[in-house]
Amino acid sequence: MPETVAPVADIAARGYAHPEVLVSTQWVADHLEDPDVRIVESDEDVLLYETGHIPGAAKIDWVADLNDPLIRDYIDRPRFQRLLRSKGINDSTTIIFYGDKNNWWATYAFWVFRLFGVENLRVMDGGRLRWAEEGREIVTAVPRALEGNITVKDRDDIRNRVFREQVLEHVKSGRSLVDVRSPEEYRGERMHMPEYPNEGALRGGHIPGARSIPWGRAINQETHTFRPANELRTIYQEENGLKPDEDVIVYCRIGERSSHTWFALTYLLGFENVRNYDGSWTEWGNVVKAPVEKP
Question: Which of 89, 192, 232, 239 is within CB 3.0–4.6 Å of 148 for a Cys-Cys bond?
Answer without folding.
Answer: 89
